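Deliverable D5.2: sample structural annotation.
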Amino acid sequence: MKNALTPSQGTETAVSEPWRAALRTFDADLQRRGAADRTRKAYGTDGAELAAWATANGLTPAQVDYKALRRWAARLSQKGAAPRTMARKLASTRSLFRSLVEHGEVASNPADLLPAPKLPQSLPKTLKPGDIERLLEKIPASTPLEMRDRALFELAYSSGLRAEELVDLDVGSVHFDDEQVRVEGKGSKTRFVPVGEPALRTIAAYLERARPALQSADQDPALFLSKSGKRLSTSDVRRRLRVWAKHAATQTGVHPHALRHSFATHLLDGGADLRAIQTMLGHASISTTQVYTRVESARLRAAYAKSHPRA
């Protein structure tokens, strides 16, 4: 991938050499830490924007302090940046200066004291077990592509995988004897996640009867292949799920992460330990997993309000 933190053509002349060097250092650190290409691209956009602003204000990386970053954040707000966009830009700024501190380019991180914007507390969208069953059962198994899709979404719900993790799987990633799948998650961290029997059956049928019909001459090792024999993309996964959700007449706007959220919520409903769910999801922090306790709490409050005579 092209250097994700290289300023775009439109900002190249507006960024000073000290900032270009800082962005190169940051990008090298992101690569070394195994950051996803999408993260590098987003941080590249944010870094180049900050670098252009600082250059226009006569500031090198070493001259940027807390007050300067407050002005930078105010400018973003004035331009109408949404809270989540602001949060990402401030996170990338903290990460950029953290890298510069580690390399001795600046003495301290001026972004550490920047207050994060308050984000709306939206709960993840989940499907009921009956909706999931109807969605999966509505995917027939009469063609190779249908068999692929059934195996794909059975596995997505069975193991709670991200779309990126699904498309990164190879044939050897599924361990049938151990009933688990080896997943390369965020930050190139490997984890093993259990796979249920229905998913294993559909994957086995896909590998035996469908995948050979999809495979092209170049023998792509990807588990899930497109009709041209190439590895699926995340957009392919989202598009195919929309097709089958519409076919099953289930909720509108169903996306792969809804299957992941449903996986975690249904495990919690069934009494699974939150730490075990954290491990299966590949969350670095338990606080990320705790959002599902809020989902359960909201569900219980709704049931109480509907059923208790003095609610």
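Annotation notes: Strands lie at 174-175, 180-184, 190-194. The CA atoms of residues 100 and 212 lie 50 Å apart.
The annotation will be released with the project's public dataset once the embargo ends.
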